[in-house]
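lol forgot to send this yesterday, sorry. struct tokens for the thing we talked abt
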């Protein structure tokens, strides 16, 4: 096998490949779907392709999924420096803004998970919801490495990474055999398969990747007594306010489940813990059929689910309730009129559980009332509940209506790019040519108004959008005309 080129990581699939300029560097990413942004951050010793099972699932659920190669990996830039957590977190925050969004659901595994914790702390405005996979809060990991002999033994490989040049040579020797050894040592038996092992070995052979990937570990270890490391620890002690879901494999031999489970002490927002039995350090690759439903539910605003008694045994809180660091139930956080979470003492409308599915006729009337009242976010919740309960023949119709309502929400929040994407996608699903509109729906009017608003938002001269532009009649008026 010859020395791989960057083209070897541009794996074809339903996604598209693109470059993102952020924080003075160029990042390669795979992108698919339209809707709210979900940013997927890979770990060591992998690259963006580790999220191949999640990219399509997120897109099919109405999200815009983007999986970048982190600094120093894959087809992204590999500068000689910038592997401290401050620069790496600024990379991620810059990606969100470069993608035209104010915030994103940030999902990270292994080192990507550590960065997700850091971004949510240092740049809280860009993280709407947080999911960490196989990675405790950095301060929890440091504490366990110092006080827990089992975790210290599991993390002993990081000491070998501190040597100059020798670790790089070992990673690339024998066409990256050591990479496959690490993957097999940390995963549950039976993973990686042949394709995954081949791709990750080849990705490590790209010029500069072995050195850059080890610089992450070197900064983390060597900064401990230095001012930059002490500053990072002090800032990380603030805790995370974004709703946070932790996923962890019970058979993880790199980061022990007992180590990860105590991270809720650093979360000041809603928190959920999900321990996956029979899974190792790479749950999203080892068991995507179990991870994806939990991830999709959390990204959409629900609870993670699935921890149950196993989660409690590992030290996490029970599932389905928002709890404080001691595991005590909290009251729901308030939201502003556009659906954005507010501080707990800020007043505003409380976060409500998912509404039950109303009968279709009542749901249409209620959603129309909420849109007229300037609450398209609430209207989306009502329509989404019907979509989830609708028979197969009607699901796309209700999904389209819910996406139109989310599009109006994004426009209301000032996110024109996200609003345009969802308005167009929703109007395509709200097909006025499907026959007689059911439930007195004004499908033609809804589709026309959604497309018109999207076109105005993308015009050369950005139009002024007023409250009246966000009103939309969903039902036909008496006499059959909307």
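and heres what i got for the seq, position by position
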């Amino acid at each position: 096998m010859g020395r791989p080129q960057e083209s070897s990581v541009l794996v074809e699939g339903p996604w598209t490949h693109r470059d993102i300029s952020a924080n003075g560097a160029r990042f390669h990413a795979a992108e698919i779907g339209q809707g709210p942004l979900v940013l997927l951050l890979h770990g060591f010793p992998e690259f963006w392709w580790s999220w191949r099972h999640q990219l399509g699932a997120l897109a099919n659920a109405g999200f815009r999924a983007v999986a970048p190669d982190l600094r120093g990996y894959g087809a992204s830039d590999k500068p000689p420096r910038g592997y401290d957590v401050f620069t790496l977190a600024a990379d991620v925050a810059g990606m969100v803004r470069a993608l035209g969004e104010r915030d994103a659901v940030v999902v990270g595994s292994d080192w990507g998970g550590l960065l997700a914790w850091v971004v949510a702390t240092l740049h809280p405005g860009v993280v709407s919801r947080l999911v960490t996979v196989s990675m405790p809060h950095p301060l929890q990991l440091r504490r366990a490495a110092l006080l827990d002999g089992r975790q210290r033994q599991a993390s002993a490989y990081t000491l070998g990474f501190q040597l100059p040049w020798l670790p790089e040579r070992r990673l690339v020797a024998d066409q990256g055999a050591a990479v496959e050894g690490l993957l097999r040592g940390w995963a549950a038996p039976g993973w990686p398969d042949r394709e995954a092992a081949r791709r990750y070995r080849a990705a490590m052979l790209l010029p500069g990747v072995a050195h850059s990937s080890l610089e992450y570990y070197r900064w983390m270890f060597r900064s401990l007594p230095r001012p930059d490391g002490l500053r990072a620890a002090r800032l990380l002690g603030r805790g995370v306010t974004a709703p946070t879901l932790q996923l962890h494999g019970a058979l993880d031999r790199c980061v022990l489940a007992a180590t990860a489970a105590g991270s809720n002490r650093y979360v000041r927002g809603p928190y959920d813990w999900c321990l996956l039995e029979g899974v190792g350090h790479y749950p999203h690759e080892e068991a995507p059929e179990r991870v994806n439903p939990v991830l999709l539910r959390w990204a959409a605003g629900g609870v993670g689910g699935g921890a149950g008694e196993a989660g409690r045994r590992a030290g996490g809180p029970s599932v389905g309730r928002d709890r404080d660091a001691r595991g005590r139930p909290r009251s729901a956080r308030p939201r502003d009129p556009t659906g954005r979470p507010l501080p707990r003492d800020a007043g505003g409308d409380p976060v409500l559980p998912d509404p039950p599915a109303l009968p279709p006729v009542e749901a249409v009337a209620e959603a129309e009332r909420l849109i007229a009242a300037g609450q398209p976010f609430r209207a989306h919740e009502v329509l989404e509940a019907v979509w989830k309960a609708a028979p197969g023949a009607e699901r796309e119709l209700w999904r389209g209506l819910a996406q139109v309502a989310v599009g109006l929400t994004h426009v209301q929040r000032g996110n024109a790019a996200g609003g345009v994407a969802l308005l167009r996608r929703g109007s395509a699903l709200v097909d006025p040519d499907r026959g007689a509109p059911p439930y007195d729906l004004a499908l033609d009017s809804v589709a026309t108004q959604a497309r018109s608003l999207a076109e105005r938002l993308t015009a050369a001269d950005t139009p002024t959008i007023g409250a009246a532009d966000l009103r939309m009649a969903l039902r036909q008026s008496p006499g059959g005309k909307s």
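The chain has 19 helices and ten strands. anyway ping me if u want another try
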